[in-house]
Design goal:
There is one protein chain. The chain is about 80% helix and about 0% strand. The chain contains ten helices and two strands, in the order ααααααααββαα.
């Protein structure tokens, strides 16, 4: 058991670092690794991915707070924008967690793998969003709901979608990353609550779970990620982020291929 605690901590440390660097909640790292670890622990296969998603979102509550504080100290969070999009992501994330509970593990895993390939492809191709005019309030709510729903379905803080959206709204890269970390908190909150509620009626979950949230993994992932997220935020203002993104894309592809082989 102590070995798994160590792996949970390492997972959180890496996730926190990337969360600070790229404005991500770290879920694209946490979900695949927790899936592998839960499988190694012989947890019920039918619930493994749902538990990984729920636990990931719960951990992002802490990661996003830590990353948000670090970016805010550098003036990189546009609070008016974050507050405008928050209602949409709250509704979308809670709805997404309900939808995920209705989907079988196999199809949920297929969706997650496709999402990982998509994100890696965007990073490798350096797809830059076009600048658009400011969105209406209804448009911002709709985009927020979509970001929240997809984020909840794949257990992430939404940075892979909110950063490009903010860039389209003519927000600078550093501010987009910082604001994305703030947007990740309501996504994680609504998503985690949804997974906890939807999992509460499942009777064959392992001990120490709160619905689909596995508390031992949450504890160690959150503690480690909170420690490294500020470091990532600091490095985001100093390191060549473009080069780091290519490394990150490669890591996503490796994990996607690993999960893909597990489907057959």
């Amino acid at each position: 058991m102590i070995t798994y605690w160590l792996f949970y901590s390492l997972t959180g440390a890496v996730a926190g670092l990337f969360a600070g660097l790229f404005g991500l909640g770290g879920g694209v790292i946490v979900v695949p690794i927790l899936t592998f670890l839960f499988t190694a622990q012989h947890m019920p296969e039918i619930h493994i991915l749902h538990m990984a998603l729920g636990t990931s979102l719960a951990s992002i509550l802490f990661t996003s707070l830590s990353s948000m504080r670090a970016h805010n100290k550098r003036g990189a969070v546009e609070w008016p924008t974050a507050l405008k999009i928050a209602p949409g992501v709250l509704v979308g994330a809670f709805s997404g967690s309900w939808l995920a509970a209705q989907i079988s593990t196999r199809y949920l895993k297929i969706f997650f793998v496709i999402f990982l390939f998509y994100i890696a492809f965007r990073i490798v191709r350096h797809i830059a969003p076009e600048i658009k005019k400011p969105y209406t309030s209804g448009g911002i709510f709709g985009v927020g709901a979509l970001i929240g729903a997809i984020s909840s379905l794949v257990g992430i803080g939404g940075g892979t979608m909110s950063v490009p959206f903010l860039l389209r709204c003519n927000v600078s890269m550093h501010s987009a990353i910082g604001t994305s970390s703030a947007i990740g908190f309501p996504i994680a909150l609504a998503g985690a609550v949804g997974y906890a509620l939807n999992g509460s009626r499942i009777i064959d979950l392992p001990p120490y779970t709160l619905g689909y949230i596995y508390l031992p993994a949450l504890l160690f992932v959150a503690l480690a990620s909170v420690t490294t997220a500020p470091l990532g935020a600091k490095l985001a203002h100093k390191l060549p982020v473009a080069r780091l993104k290519m490394i990150f894309a490669g890591l996503l592809l490796v994990m996607a291929l690993k999960m893909l082989t597990g489907l057959f």
